[in-house]
Amino acid sequence: PQGSEKAKTFVHAFLKRSMPKMKDEAIQDMLTRKAVVLEHYPKKKTKPKRKNTKGFTAKQRRELRLFEIEPEQQRYSIFLPLHELWKQYIRDLCHGLKPDTQPHMIQSKLLKADLHGAIVTVTKSKCPSYVGITGIILQEFKHIFKIITKEDKLKVVPKLNNVFSLELDGFVSYIYGSKFLLRASERSAKKFKLKGTIDL
C-alpha cells in the first residue's frame, strides 16, 4: 500500500537525520531486524570561565584609601579596648605570664604574635625625634608602624633603625625594627634565629 511506502521513507529519513554517522546499509539492516536504538550526540558543553578572585592591587587600595584612618577616628580612647583585647590575647598565647615563665619562650611567641593593639615605646633611634614616642599600634606594614599617641596624634614610625619596647604584666620585650622588616602575615611563618647581631 502507498501509506506503508510513505511510512518507510519517513522512517528512513528520520533515522538518517537522527544518526548522521551511520551508513545507509546499517540503517537498512536495522530496519529489517526491526530493532532500532536511537543514538544521541549531545553538544559539547563549554566550561564557564572562572572568575578572577584576586583582590585589589596595591594601587587600587591606595586609590580607595582602604588603610587610611579618618581624622575623627584618630583618638587614643577609641583604641583602648583594642589594647585590652591584645593583652588577653598575649596572655592566652603564652598560657599566662607567670613569674616563673621563661623569658625566651615569651619572646619567641611575641616575635610571631599580632601586634595590633600593643602599646609600644621607641626607646632607641638613629633619628632622635622618634625617641619617646609611645602609643597603641593601629597598623603594621612591612616597613612602618602606625601608632596613635595619648595626645590623639597618629604617628608613622619606620621600623628600620628603631628599637621598640613593649611591657605586659611586668615583662618587657624589645623589638629591633631592622630585624622586623616583615608583614604581620609573613612574620607568623618565619623562623627567627635565637642569636644574631643586634644593631639599630
TrEMBL record:
Predominant location: nucleus
Protein location: Nucleus, Nucleolus
The keyword Coiled coil appears for this protein: no
Molecular functions per Gene Ontology: ribonuclease P RNA binding
Family statement: Belongs to the eukaryotic/archaeal RNase P protein component 1 family.
Subunit structure: Component of nuclear RNase P and RNase MRP ribonucleoproteins. RNase P consists of a catalytic RNA moiety and 10 different protein chains; POP1, POP4, POP5, POP7, RPP14, RPP21, RPP25, RPP30, RPP38 and RPP40. Within the RNase P complex, POP1, POP7 and RPP25 form the 'finger' subcomplex, POP5, RPP14, RPP40 and homodimeric RPP30 form the 'palm' subcomplex, and RPP21, POP4 and RPP38 form the 'wrist' subcomplex. All subunits of the RNase P complex interact with the catalytic RNA. Several subunits of RNase P are also part of the RNase MRP complex.
Protein name stated in the entry: Ribonuclease P protein subunit p29
Organism from which the protein derives: Sitta europaea (Eurasian nuthatch)
Gene expressing this chain: Pop4
